[in-house]
Amino acid sequence: MCTLEKRGSLFILTLTSHDDEQHRLNPTLLSSILTAISKVNSQATVGSALVTTAHGRFFCNGFDFRYAQAAGSQSEARIRLRRMSDSLRPVIAALFSLPMPTVAAVSGHAAAAGLILAMAHDYVLMRSDRGVLYMPEVDLGITVPDYFAAVVTAKIGPAMALRDVLLRGMKVRAKEAVEMGIVNTAHDSEDGTVEAAMRMGEELARKKWVGDVYGEIRKRLYPQVCGVLCLTLQPIVSKI
């Protein structure tokens, strides 16, 4: 599950560890995250920001394959996996549409769909003493959904870094992730990562940007992602 807290100008979305320390994305967790982001959207004011983090040594370890395999047959497992992918799509769309700056505090491993969740934020901070970023699809023998590819292509600039992440299945640690331009900064501990994300969120919130304008500029910055997610653009002028 996840929790949502409002602390001053910040909305803090936390993946919790009641029954799965890896925070694997199953229908229950995906629904909980989407509900939380929708609440943030409805309560957004000028000068807000979102910080997303997680408890424990995992940020998010991707889709819940245990849930998929529990369906019994291989065909039913594939159906469940496809449904989870379909359920993550609106979560990513909601993050790209959110009318405020967003910061992901990657406090542990972020793999596959979990990495996509992190990279859907405007800024990504990562813990350096533990955890990797990892897109294991090439090792697992499965293709990536179109919106996965769009997000990764939009957020990882150098072609060689993009190749290493997707075609080599490279496990990227924090220092390498900073050098490759995947994350903004690396920090010594879970607490340090979250604290830095909070400071960044507060700094961004103090800009008091008009949220709708901020969200529309973000969408225009990533046209391929918006096209795949079917996000429409709205002309907004807040001041003349």
Radius of gyration, taken over Cα atoms and rounded to an integer in Å: 17 Å
Please outline the major beta sheet.
6 strands, mixed
Number of domains: 1
CATH class call: Alpha Beta
Number of strands: 9
Number of alpha- plus pi-helical segments: 11
Share in helix: 40-55%
Mean pLDDT, to the nearest integer, reads 95
Do you know the CATH topology? 2-enoyl-CoA Hydratase, Chain A, domain 1
Family: Belongs to the enoyl-CoA hydratase/isomerase family.
Pfam families: ECH_1
Catalytic activity: a (3Z)-enoyl-CoA = a 4-saturated (2E)-enoyl-CoA; a (3E)-enoyl-CoA = a 4-saturated (2E)-enoyl-CoA
InterPro entries: ClpP/crotonase-like_dom_sf, Enoyl-CoA_hydra/iso
Describe this structure in words.
This protein has 240 residues and is α/β, with parallel strands linked by helices. The protein has a single domain, classed as Alpha-Beta Complex (2-enoyl-CoA Hydratase, Chain A, domain 1). It contains eleven helices and nine strands. A hairpin with a 2-residue loop joins strand 1 and strand 2. Helix 1 packs parallel to helix 3 and helix 6 runs antiparallel to helix 11. The chain is globular and about 55 Å long. The protein starts with a strand and ends in an 11-residue tail after the last helix. It comes from Cicer arietinum (Chickpea). Its EC number is 5.3.3.8. GO terms for molecular function: delta(3)-delta(2)-enoyl-CoA isomerase activity. InterPro entries: ClpP/crotonase-like_dom_sf, Enoyl-CoA_hydra/iso. Keywords: Lipid metabolism.
